[in-house]
Amino acid sequence: MDAAHVDNDLVNVLFTEEQILERIGELAQEIETDYDGKELLIVGILRGAVMVMADMARAFTRHVEMDWMAVSSYGSGTKSSGVVRILKDLDTDISGRHVVIVDEIIDTGLTLSWLSSNLSSRNPASVQICTLLRKPEALQMPVDVKYVGWDIPNEFVVGYGLDYRERYRNLRDIGTLAPHVYS
Ligand code: 5GP
Ligand code: MG
Ligand code: MG
């Protein structure tokens, strides 16, 4: 048991560590098949995608390059500010490269639709998106997500890289927080 469970902060576990690793393994296999014979760069979106990137990269049985971007869209709360800003850009020149953006969750779709067109403007061979979680709200933005772990209800979730005010990222499971945490 981890501390947050003991504190009863997590009221409902949606996905356990075991389920997450299994699903990521499936996604990695799908991507391996699709990019067979091609060089692949996966781009993780800091900070939430750190866990997904680490587990996905190790699920591959092929060579893969990893790079990172940091953008801000949410601030420290639970609502999108509607503004996307690059805090850390890629170190890699992606022209002519096959790129898969890896993120942990797509909510409004604002961040990923903006990122996807930003990367597409750098003349890559291709850009696709992989997200572990997707909320129904994401359908409101025109963002083409090729690889999705699970569609989830419209609730705020934490764990496995997902934070609430920079806490809970280090939980192994994904779940929702008890109301008392927010008050
Ligand atoms: P979007 O731009 O798609 O609305 O949201 C993108 C970012 O918002 C995600 O990468 C994540 O950092 C944050 N976010 C969206 N929904 C959730 C959620 O349910 N829990 C947490 N912890 N972060 C979320
Ligand atoms: Mg994210
Ligand atoms: Mg956050």
From TrEMBL:
Its cofactor is Mg(2+). Belongs to the purine/pyrimidine phosphoribosyltransferase family. It catalyses: GMP + diphosphate = guanine + 5-phospho-alpha-D-ribose 1-diphosphate; IMP + diphosphate = hypoxanthine + 5-phospho-alpha-D-ribose 1-diphosphate. GO terms for biological process: GMP salvage; guanine salvage; hypoxanthine metabolic process; IMP salvage; purine ribonucleoside salvage. This is Hypoxanthine phosphoribosyltransferase. One of its GO terms (cellular component) is cytosol. InterPro entries: HGPRT (IPR050408), Hxn_phspho_trans (IPR005904), PRTase-like (IPR029057), PRTase_dom (IPR000836). It is an enzyme of class 2 (transferase). It comes from Nocardioides psychrotolerans. It comes from the Bacteria. It is found in: Cytoplasm. Its EC number is 2.4.2.8. Pathway: Purine metabolism; GMP biosynthesis via salvage pathway; GMP from guanine: step 1/1; Purine metabolism; IMP biosynthesis via salvage pathway; IMP from hypoxanthine: step 1/1. Pfam families: Pribosyltran (PF00156). Keywords: Cytoplasm, Glycosyltransferase, Magnesium, Metal-binding, Nucleotide-binding, Purine salvage, Transferase. GO terms for molecular function: guanine phosphoribosyltransferase activity; hypoxanthine phosphoribosyltransferase activity; magnesium ion binding; nucleotide binding.
